[in-house]
Design goal:
The protein has about 120 residues and is mainly α. The protein contains 4 helices and no strands. The longest helix has 28 residues, at about 55-80. The termini are far apart.
Amino acid sequence: FASVTRQLSTRRPTQTSFVGRGLEEFFEKGQRLPKSRDQTGRAWSASELRQKSWEDLQKLWYVILKERNILASQTEETKRLGIPSQFFSNKSRTIKCKKSMARIKTVLNERRLAWEVA
């Protein structure tokens, strides 16, 4: 059976970039809720994003998307556990993610428009 599934698989056994981790991917440091508040950075500015390549923007998009999924999981976990929002809130991090994603879309749209004109 294993040899049949290996033949049907689209991934080559030598590729090591994909590691399936399950649901813990949706939690920060493998914890349902963080024990301490870590310092977070700021949102990306459009001028910084304009200097990035297409591949870098695509990678950054998925990193930020993963961060938003983690934050959404934490928010749902606090609701499930009945923790009041004044004790745990990640709203500022969510806003930073949304701003960065909107700016990536803006930069990509600027590039698309410049390409259409050219």
